[in-house]
């Protein structure tokens, strides 16, 4: 059984991040993608590691900055088993606006 899963939007986010970086370097894109997946495994082992951001959303989600690449933010539901990564954002995105459309 997998420790985590990505929603379709989170999968699309990771593909978009990878494609953007790969335009300059496929190797760098692979490293960032791997760091995102490693962070998901890390969070799945202790889901409360992330922090809440009531200023951004009322959803019961937590936020985690990818340590090796702090421009990237994982939004996840710590209550789901396996852990559900809802979105993966690049730091410049309007997170509040993007999360308004989440159920």
Write a concise synopsis of the structure shown:
The protein has 103 residues and is α+β, with helices and mostly antiparallel strands. The chain has helices spanning 8-22, 26-45, 95-99; strands at 4-6, 62-65, 72-77, 83-90. The mean pLDDT is 90.
User: How many structurally independent domains?
Assistant: 1
What's the N-to-C terminus distance? 25 Å
Mean pLDDT: 90
User: Into which percent range does the helicity of residues fall?
Assistant: 25-40%
Plain-language structure description:
- It is a single chain.
- The protein is an alpha+beta fold and 103 residues long.
- It has one domain (4-99): RelE-like (YaeB-like fold, 2-Layer Sandwich), CATH 3.30.2310.
- The protein has three helices and four strands, in the order E-H-H-E-E-E-H.
- It has helices at residues 8-22, 26-45, 95-99, and strands at 4-6, 62-65, 72-77, 83-90.
- It has a four-stranded mixed sheet.
- A hairpin with a 5-residue loop joins strand 3 (72-77) and strand 4 (83-90).
- The model has no long low-confidence stretch (mean pLDDT 90).
């Amino acid at each position: 059984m997998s420790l985590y899963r990505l929603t379709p939007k989170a999968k699309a986010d990771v593909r978009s991040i990878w494609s953007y970086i790969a335009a300059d370097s496929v190797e760098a894109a692979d490293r960032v993608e791997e760091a995102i997946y490693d962070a998901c495994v890390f969070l799945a082992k202790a889901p409360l590691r992330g922090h809440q951001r009531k200023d951004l959303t009322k959803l019961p989600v937590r936020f985690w900055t990818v340590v090796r690449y702090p421009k990237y933010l994982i939004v996840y539901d710590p209550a789901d088993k396996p852990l559900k990564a809802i979105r993966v954002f690049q730091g410049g995105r309007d997170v509040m606006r993007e999360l308004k459309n989440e159920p």
